[in-house]
Amino acid sequence: MSPNAARRVLEGQRAAPGMALGRVRLQLPHRHNIDASPLPADAIEHELARLDAALARARGELTELRQRLHGALAREAQPFLDTHALILDDPELRGGLIDLIRKGRYRAGAALVAQRDRLIEVFRRMDDAYLRAREDDLAQVIARVLDALEHDGRSEERRMAARLGEILVAENPSPAELASLAERGLCGVMATGGSAYSHAAILARSLHLPMLCSVQDAETVLGDGDLLLLDGEGGFAIAHPAAQDLATLRQWQRAQAARPRVAPVPAAPARTRDHEQVALYANAELPGEIAEARALGAMGVGLYRTELLYLRQSALPGEEEQYAALRGLMLALDGAPATLRTLDLGADKAIGTGLAMPTEANPALGVRGVRHALRHPAILRTQLRAMLRAAQLGPLRILLPMVTVAEEIAAVRAHAAECLAELHAAGVPAPATLPPLGAMVEVPAAALGVRTLLHEADFLAIGSNDLAQYVLAADRNLGTLAGLYDPRHPALLRLIAFVTSAARRAGKPLSICGEIAGDVTALPLLLAVGIRELSMLPARLPAARAVVETAHCAQLRAHLPRLLRAGSRAEIEALLCTLQQP
């Protein structure tokens, strides 16, 4: 807990709506406040008790971490966990600390720093390179004990925080981390980096976790266990909130509880004012999202992400486990269609799963999506067999991520045909023919070579999040580039228009399933270029339907030449005002 518990307002970018009050779970390097004043003689025993409690708390954290890690991450972390445990249990470390407190009248924090510096100096004088390298381990262990030492407060704020869930504060949390913590009561997320288009932000919206990104000064203001009020709608957070802040939260909670229950919307296309139909689908990866999407009028699931099944466990999910999950999806849809995306995890997100993926310098451009699938056919075929079995329960399509060339689609189709033949030979219920096999257009080469892709793909889905990232050469997880990363950039609009025109001429279905599909300010642009199938977060369906039903597609198409000639985002923004007029 921060020693200076003064109310502070931290501003950031809105990534997921909602409000949350919780205790900080800090995953950032932060400075410790060391009291170097002499310790009074009558406080020695109390200070020794504080030290022992902090050491015990640090040991407990290591034990908990060891139990929580699994898969590849556990194998990588085991050596340093063992080393840190040995350092914590070293009698010389504790003995030196006791002497500093008893004889030198050091406070516990100052004693820890002094003992750390003394031992590091000893390590540096050694000839053994291995022992010299242990200074990092020692520094990390002392930092953990200092963290634990700062958490021993029993203020009213601390007691309140203990009754609340946690708000993760990290530089750029991984989707796997969010999925795991959400199951244990995570109530909000604050990222010092990232953007609203990051994978973590997308998952936070799916999980209905309020989130801020690109928050400055969090590492200097916050400490573990601090009380934090996070406002994902206002774009700020308040450390050590005051009574009036808590009153605002309660007012918001009452307003949420008083919101009228929305009557279910029939699953039908939205109609523009000139009677063109636009199909609205939902992006989903959690069971609860299916019911929400159906109640909000989704015609089905336009993008079902299968990664969560891999992220939640250390071993690869087998065919039966995957089929059980997909069976639940298809039964929940009750005859509505689903588009199932095959596994799309890069090396940066596979840590802790059963996927053995080597470290890559640039995972966004590495072995992920269909590239990984074709290098690991056993994993692909297990997933394909489960999907083919699920196709007996309702209409579904199979979507391949990160496609670059048509040969990749053909190779997966060959695997799928073999899997279908195996199921038939084994007497396992499966469709007579392969379900439609499509490609995500998220690589610039795929967009520019779309005509070739259409010879192999039965349908296309534009993944605007990654396509924008690659076209603009701007990492969508990097908050410092948030101003550059804009899915409404003229270059991206031209590519989307090019792909849409090619799909229309080929008579192949086309959808768009990135964040731009649910962005009400961008919908007129998508309608103007000819997009008629949109897939988005369930919560965005009502607003998207309202925009579509007030639009006039013929009038929007009349503006298309001007839109495609726009030389800047500012020109597009100006044209948007015209497009949104009746």
Measured as a percent range, the helix fraction is: 40-55%
- Protein structure class: alpha/beta
- Head-to-tail CA distance between termini: 54 Å
Strands, total number:
17
Strand content: 5-15%
Low-confidence stretches: 71-77
The largest sheet is: 9 strands, mixed
Radius of gyration over alpha carbons? 27 Å
Overall pLDDT level: 83
Treating each run of at least 4 consecutive H or I residues as one helix, how many helices? 25
> Per the principal axes of the C-alpha atoms, what is the gross shape?
globular
Q: Secondary-structure map with pairings?
A:
Elements lengths: L7 E4 L1 E4 L2 E9 L16 H25 L2 H18 L2 H12 L5 H17 L4 H21 L6 H7 L3 E5 L4 H8 L3 E6 L7 H8 L4 E3 L4 H4 L5 E5 L4 E4 L3 H16 L11 E2 L5 E8 L2 H9 L5 E5 L1 H5 L7 H15 L4 E4 L28 H6 L1 H14 L5 E5 L5 H20 L11 E5 L2 H5 L1 H7 L2 E4 L1 H9 L17 H17 L3 E3 L10 H7 L3 E4 L4 H10 L2 H6 L1 H6 L3 H11 L3
Parallel strand pairs: 3-4, 4-5, 5-6, 10-11, 10-17, 11-12, 12-13, 13-14, 14-15, 15-16
Antiparallel strand pairs: 1-8, 2-6, 3-7, 7-8, 9-10
Helix pairs in contact: 1-2, 1-5, 2-5, 3-4, 4-5, 11-13, 13-15, 15-16, 16-18
Short description:
The chain is α/β, with parallel strands linked by helices and 582 residues long.
Task: Describe the 3D structure.
With 582 residues, the protein is of the alpha/beta class. The chain is built from 25 helices and 17 strands. The strands form two sheets. Strands 9, 10, 11, 12, 13, 14, 15, 16 and 17 form a nine-stranded mixed sheet that branches. An eight-stranded mixed sheet has the order 1-8-7-3-4-5-6-2. Helix 11 (287-295) runs parallel beside helix 13 and helix 15 crosses helix 16. The longest helix is centred in the first third of the chain and has 25 residues, at 44-68. The protein is globular and about 85 Å long.
